[in-house]
Amino acid sequence: MKKILSMAAILALSSMSAMAAGTESGTVVSNSASLSYSVGGATQPTVNTTEAATFVVDKKIDFSVVHADGTKHLITTPGATEVERTFTLENTTNEIQRFTINGTNLTGDTYDSKVDNSDVSDIKISFEQADGTWTAFASGPVTIPDVGIDGTVNIKVQSTIPNTNVDGNIMNIQLEATAIDANGDAEVATAGEDNKDLKDTVLGEGANITEFGNTQFDGKYSAWAGYIINSPVLSLTKSSCVYEDLVSGVSANAKRIPGATITYLFDIENTGSIDASDINITDALPAELDGTSVAVIKMNDAQDSCTCTGGVAGAGTLVDAANYEAAQTVKINSLTAQKAKHNCVTLQVKIK
What we know:
Blueprint: H1 7-18, E1 28-31, E2 34-35, E3 38-39, E4 42-43, E5 47-48, E6 53-56, E7 59-61, E8 63-67, E9 73-76, E10 83-91, E11 97-105, E12 110-111, E13 114-115, E14 121-127, E15 142-147, E16 152-160, E17 170-180, E18 201-203, E19 220-229, E20 234-245, E21 249-250, E22 261-270, E23 276-284, E24 289-299, E25 317-318, E26 324-325, E27 329-337, E28 341-351
């Protein structure tokens, strides 16, 4: 026969499973017992315990920190500020518990098969309060007061990405939580044998990821999150060829004689993982060239390589006159270099 639980029993089971932290610390557990017996078939008076067996439930400090925004390594760029990662702290201690939280770099460590080779700076922390508002970002350690039994706290960590980082750099940080007492000191386990009449403290948190040598049952718990740099990687090569001279005209046989037009080619190679924008080229022309003759400045489409053979500037788009200054010092502004390509700029100038 299938056993059917009463509604009261279902509610009782539901209540027990919802309270992951278990019986609240400080609870006094007390119960008595009795026995009955008979002599020669005659029932004798019931014997009760002289006093109840009583003890106090001890405090088991148990909590965890998890990375909560999904992406293990967030894509970012050099110089980015206020780049956020999120975490969640859960208190499964069997009483209300306080914590301090702190964010630090994990220099040199490997997470998700990526070796940390750089650091973030200006790490600051904010957490969501019980009323749904967030605290102002502050440098750690930051104190989170009175997290309820089975309560969770959402945490944000902001960092600045130094602009010295290059494409592919990896930065990992950890958020470490420490259980603290009402005085702000780290919780410590009660030493010695159990005292049934007092509330002892037991450090019972799990093992965790950390660089500080923390181990299971040390009152600390950490989680990590990372950053990966996507950035352009630019190199600039300048070469020249002859476009025309006053003897051969526009010809492969034109020579670099006075009055000849020289084509200069700027090869901007971008081997990085993202496009580069707002590129400005400055070229101080030597006195032997006529800065007043600068013309035909073009931006060629990105290609596998740039050449300057045959003396022709090649296909491309004329750079808007508003974006260059044609003088003895030529300035070409507001260029873009596509990723994984050579990006070609040409200008023409005459030999004096």
